[in-house]
Amino acid sequence: MEGQEHLLFIDFEFTMPEGKSNPKGFYPEIIEVGIVSVRNNQIEAEQFSSYVKPKRFPFLSERCKNFLQISQAKIDEGISFSDLLTTLKIYDQASSTTVITWGNMDMKVLRQNCQMNNEKFPFTGRFRDLSMEYKKFFGDRNQTGLRKAVEEYGKKATGKHHRALDDALTTYNLFKLVEEDKRYLQKPAPPTIGDRVDLAKAFNKYAT
Q: What Gene3D superfamilies does the entry give (predicted)?
């Protein structure tokens, strides 16, 4: 709807090679997506979660399957990369859309995947890297992992680590915590002349 702030919290999981050296032509491909859509601080009813079939290297490495706890069968049942872009474009149709991720890899890999598939990048709005905001806000030297950042607040992360929708929800929950701290630490506005006059009257009343 026009005039509403629309935030998209997105997390992707990617393919990875078997060893340290990449096979010829290898690049990380998106194999899972999680999206949490928020309007005016309210999560919309429909969240999006899906596996995505990679095109360049359709068979997952054992390392990837073990690390993400994911099976080849689930990936084979996923949507195509083209269908993923169609979904992302639908989310982007809202006015004033801001995409928020933990780290910059999600958007980097999405851009690369679009380039390798000769597809147009689906987003037209703003982007925010919450991990960099967190780092600057707390003055950390290094970027903090998503789950560790939540634990530093004394909270529990949502669901399982490296599940796209769970990590997107965790990013949203951490976003709320950081924004609340930012508001708390904002300097109060200086009093107006009218405020000062009223305060002077109060002081005079209690002084007599």
A: Ribonuclease H-like superfamily/Ribonuclease H
